[in-house]
Amino acid sequence: MTVTQPDDAAAVVLYATPELVVTRQWIYTRGHRYRVADLEQVVRARGGLHPAAQGALVVAALDVTAAIPIMTMVGSLAGWAMAAVAVLVPCLVAVVSVYRWPPRQELWAYHRGCRVLLLKTRDGIVFGQVSRALQRAIESLPTRQR
Question: Which residue windows are transmembrane per the record (predicted)?
Answer without folding.
Answer: 77-99
